[in-house]
Design a protein that fits this description.
Pfam families: APS_kinase. By secondary structure, this protein is α/β, with parallel strands linked by helices. The chain contains nine helices and five strands, in the order αβαβααβαβααβαα.
Length: about 210
Amino acid sequence: MNITWHEQTLSKAARAKSKSQKSYVLWFTGLSASGKSTLANALEHRLHASGHHTYLLDGDNVRHGLNQDLGFSDEDRVENIRRIAEVSKLFVNAGTIILCAFISPFKRDRDMARAILPQGEFIEVYVNTPLTVCEQRDPKGLYRKARQGEIRQFTGIDSAYEAPDNPEITINTENKNVENCVDELLVYLQQNNLIHRNELLGNGNIPSCRSMLT
């Protein structure tokens, strides 16, 4: 192939410095209806309100565009995650904090995504919500359809979900509201010098988990 990497003179560090922040990926993984998208969205609002530059990539949304040609076979799921990881790397190079909300059920795929990013720039957030709770929520009716055989290869029913062995942070949404969950994430980011604004904590404007988690 007649292609050559073109070196850019403007560095990732310079782009991040212009935004007064560090850039990295927050990768939310968990079952459908565990609360990944809701928490990522709420966290992005909190970060944006304090001046951080962010972008959220959601599993369903990218399948409307970038990954609309992919299905849900194991092979397509691998390619889905590979593309998202490469896009995430571009956002990080642009100095942006990127939040990714994807079931990403297989450990090897999450490890692949981690390997694409430089060390320390991939933060795995395991949204550890029991399958029974996710089925009770079932906001899109997907579990019901999977149980009735209308959907095949559905994670947690007839396709495996491999929980992370050593995620950077684990959030259990079963008995917590969105505000509490987001505060846990912000504390982690502050303790690891990824954000520095204490005023991010205690924002009471986020609705209850019970009505929003998906």
